[in-house]
Amino acid sequence: MKLKLAFISFAILVTTILAGCEPLLVLNPKGPQAETTANVIWLSIFTMAVIVIVVITLLIIMIFKYRASKQSEDYEPPHIEGNPIVEGLIIGIPVLIVIFLSIVSVKSTYEVESVPKGYEDQEPMVIYAASSNWKWHFSYPEQEIETLNYVILPTDRPVEFRLYSYGPITSFWIPQLAGQKYAMADMVTKINIVADVPGDYPGRNANFSGKGFAKNTFTATALSPDEFDKWVEEIHSTAEALTEEKFEQLLEPGHLGQMTFTGTHLEFNPAPEGEHAGHHHGDSSDDMEHENHESHEHNNQQDVDSHEDHSNH
Asked: Residue 103's domain is classified under what CATH number?
């Protein structure tokens, strides 16, 4: 009776705790990229559950079948050789599981890193997402709009987010639309997203970046293409222009609400890509050859000057 009451109390406690948890947004995808991720998670959970159930079942069987109480006190186990079939299963099954999960992981990684199937022929809309302490700045170069702590997306159109940071490394994450991707200070990383269903989806910085990290969040809203065009027109008729002075104020550490501007900070403070990259990430081979050629010419000129000085002496 006591054991039954303890089990019921434990079940009630677990149910109460789980009721206060946030829903698992990664398992409620609203786009093809997030759906791929969710499928991999479910497959991994199922695979691990099968392994755990089989191992625990075998453990219980072995403990019960070969328990010491069944044998006489003078019992001595016979000498037996290893069984190649059992040993092969013990080694082979884990190897096959690892190979299977590796193939799934590599395949899904390539899928989520590229434009989703069915959208390859569409030109992606580019949005720059820059983080600062502790805000998110979204720049639309095509629409000439900038938003703070919220981003509007058109449904059924690929969106290419270009990520970077004005502070420590952060991680851009909209669980229902895509996985995480790092945003760094001296280079631009990219993530492709498509929203299938209109709605509001929470996003956040998933990488600890200081005391304001917990509130470093934003909202991604997916609208139909017509509603998105109306939103763009409305912003251009109502929002104030973003100036360099205003942008410098926005970069100061702290938390702010949602804001909207016309124009983007890319005009006076470009993203760290191409010629503006901190370490020239992604330089083309032609640029590298040009730099090497200039360096070679500079070294040759130094050798000539040194030879002339030596001759004069």
From this structure: 1.10.287
Tokens of 164: 């970077």
CA 274, 277, 281, 286 torsion: positive or negative? positive
Separation CA 144–CA 121 (nearest Å): 24
The amino acid occupying position 117 is K
Confidence grade of residue 33 (pLDDT, cut at 50, 70, 90): very high
Torsion angle (degrees, nearest 10) of CA 202, 208, 211, 214: 20
Find residue 153's DSSP bridge partners. Answer: 222
The answer on 109 and 140 residing in a single domain is no
Q: How high is the pLDDT of residue 15?
A: 61
Listing DSSP states for 131-144 in one string gives: EETTEEEEEETTTT
Threshold 0.70, pTM exceeds: yes
Order of strands across the sheet with 125-132?
Answer: 189-193, 159-165, 125-132, 135-140, 145-148, 259-262, 240-241
Using one digit for the tens of pLDDT, what is the confidence trace for 6-30? 666 666 665 665 554 556 888 999 9
Which of 174, 173, 220, 175 lies closest to 26 in space, CA to CA? 175
Task: Decide if 283 is inside a domain.
Answer: no
| Number of domains the chain is built from | 2
For residue 287, being part of any structural domain is answered with: no
Given a cut of 60, whether residue 303 has pLDDT beyond it is: no
Handedness of CA 93, 98, 102, 108 (dihedral sign): positive
Examine residue 89 and state whether it is found in any structural domain, yes or no. Answer: yes
- Contact between 260 and 235 under an 8 Å Cβ cutoff? The reply is yes
**269 and 139 in one domain?**
yes
d(CA 96, CA 206): 33
Read off φ and ψ for residue 43, nearest 5 degrees: -65, -40
